[in-house]
Amino acid sequence: MGYTNYRVEDFLEDDKFIEWILTNDPEINDFWESWIDGHPERKQALMDAKAILLNLDFKKHALTAEEKLELYNAIEAKTTHKDIQGAFEIFRHYMGDAQSGAAQSGETGSKSGSDQRPAEVTDTYRGSSKRSWYKVAALLIAIVSLAGIIGYILYTTSSEPETLMTKEIVKQNPKGQRLTTYLPDGSKVILNASSKLRYNSPFEGDRRMVELDGEAFFEVEKDTARPFIVAANGVTTTALGTSFNVNAKQEDRVEVALVSGKVRVTNSTMQSIVLIPGNFAVSSRLGDLVVRKFDQLEVVGWKDGILSFNESSFSEIIDKLEEWYGVDFKIDGGSINQVHYTSTYQNASLDEILKGVSFVYHFEYKISGDTVEIKYEYK
Fold this sequence. Notes:
The chain is α+β, with helices and mostly antiparallel strands. It has helices spanning 8-12, 15-23, 26-38, 43-54, 65-77, 82-94, 98-104, 119-125, 130-147, 149-155, 296-300, 314-325, 350-361; strands at residues 167-173, 179-182, 188-191, 195-201, 208-213, 215-219, 228-232, 235-239, 243-247, 253-260, 263-266, 272-275, 279-284, 289-293, 306-312, 328-332, 341-346, 363-368, 371-376.
């Protein structure tokens, strides 16, 4: 998976990352600086891992042999997973063989005989490099510090394993608002106005499922083992790693526009089709599944603040403006002409757009908070 889905513990196990932190080699530094720029969503995890490595200096703590032994025994008593157990064995070894020191000082509670640190652990790691020590210690510190295990170990007696809790997350936008959010796998979602997104955190099982009411643009992290599925009004869109737009604002119609990668669209009648970039699938309540080309600016420009009108009627313009700006229109007098309006705006104010629209449709307008009054004068 490369570094795309790396978490703190993954960075702490990566030789190239550790070498960057310990040596500050210019060539390696260039690689990581460039990687951070291209993956801003992973920057926090990387910086947390870096902080852990930079603060690894056990000599500063000056633990006594008794303190080392107490900490080790408490950790060992609560640990059953063989991989973590091995890390703890190494931890004890590098902490200075606390058990031996405690035994010599006559302290009670130390282990003897078959409970002593196995010889094979010592043989395996006696000649380890400083980098390997940092790697193992960093993993241990990450587990202990990030999960709060030390507090749990020293102050509780329960031996029941922790259960990973799944929480339902709901993101919802009213009219006039758009939201950018990141899912548990790192995938990016831009949620349009008057839209709602539901998903479990973390994702469960062998798939990444989200439910959409409204419209959203997805930039999906690649994970071939767990497909990414968007469910909207009986239509599912399945992807492995791609970017696409799903519009399910109309109850009887779902639109899927593919910008990059590949997705499979399946409707409620189990009709299915694979889209390629530039293709647009429309599924209707009747069970039809139609594919055509689409204008990317018109269909997905909204995520970049672009509001596009293409041969739009007056009523279509009003509907778009109400949702985009979160306002209500009150129209007074006159009859609406049948001309259609075509124009594109980017990050424009409501007043800017109404100036252009009013010129074509011959009306006066007044903006008062979230209400727009229109007096139509066309004869």
